[in-house]
Specification:
By secondary structure, the protein is of the alpha+beta class. It is 39% helix and 13% strand. The protein has three domains: 71 residues, Ubiquitin-like (UB roll), CATH 3.10.20; 30 residues, no CATH class; 193 residues, no CATH class. 28% of the residues are buried.
Amino acid sequence: MKKGYKVTDVKREKKIGIAAENLEELIEKSRKKLGFNVSCAECRLFVAEDGTRVDDDDYLGSLPPQTLFILLKDTEKMVTDFDYFYNMIRSVRKEYIDTGTAAKQFLSTNIKEKFKAFQKYIAASDDTLVNLFSILSIRIFFPGLEPSEKTKEQSMSKRVKERMRGYYYKTKSALQASEQYIQTNGRGKKLIDQFLLDLRKILETSKYNEAYFNRKADKKECLCDKSGLFACGGLWSKDYCDYEGEHVINPYRSREERIIFQTWNLDHKIELSRSIIPKILESIERFYNGENKCINCENVIKIGYIDADRYYLQIFTRENLKLVHIVCHYKGKHDADSDVYTICKNCIGNQSIRYTN
C-alpha cells in the first residue's frame, strides 16, 4: 500500500510530494522530480528531522505518512536540522548573534561555555510564550508539524517516539548482521526474529514511551516539569549534573530552544552497542553450549527464549536512559554491563517484570 511522503534536497529549496510503496520507488520518483542527473544507486535518503539514514523498507514502513526526507547525491553531505535552522536563525535573528564570524566561533571554540551562554540568552526571552496554545503559535514555534499534530505536546511525543524507533532499528540491524543470525543453520535466526518480534510488541504496547517528552503526561513518566522545562541528568556515572541550574532547556518555549533540544541525548548508562547487544548474542551462544539458566526458576536450559522484557527495560526506558546536555554526554566506554537474560518455556508466561519510576 502506497503512502505519501515529502522530499527535498540538501538546500531545501524545493519540496515535493511523493506516493510510494517502498524505498526504491520513493528514491526513483524523488530523483526524477528533483532533477537529479544520477542513478538511484548514487542517491541516499535521510529523515530531515534528525538525519537518520533510511536504507530499508522496514524502517521506511515504520515512519508516518508525510514524513519529510532529504535526498542526497553521493557527493553531497548531509546537513542536519540543527545546522540548517541555526544558519537560518543567524540570518534572521541577529539579536542573538551579532555576526556570521562570531557565530562560527561561538560553536567551534570553548563549547561548554558557549552553550551555557547561548542557552541563558534564549531563556531570558518572554516566558509567557510557553502558554500560547493557539494554532498560530504552534505553527510559528513548531514548523513542519503533521496535520494530525494539533499541539506542542503531540509534536514532542513524536520526537521521543522517533528516538525509540531509532534504538529498535539499531538493535535489529546489529542482530541481523551477526554471525549468530547468518551462520547457525537457522536456529539463531529463529531466536533473534522471535526476540525482535517480542521487543517490537512491548514497545508498541508502551506507545514508544511517548510520555517522556510530554509535559502534560503523568509526572512519574515525563522527563520535564509542567511548563516543559527539562534538566540535564549529568554524566552517565553520576546522579546529578555538575552544571546544576545551567543545563536546562524548554523546547516548548521557543523555536530556537526546540532546535537546540535536538542536541540533547537520551544516553544509555549501560551502552546499547558495547554491552546490551553483545549480551543478547552471548545468550544465543550459550543456548548452543547448554550453559543458559532460566532467570526465573534458575534451571539449566537448552531450549528457551531471550527475555525481551529485561532487554526492553535497558534499551527503551528510564531504568537505563538518562536525558543529558551535549556537554554531559560521555562517548567513551561506560563501566557498566548488561547480562544474559534467558527464560525457559515453562516460565515464559510468568514474567512479572514491570518498570517503575
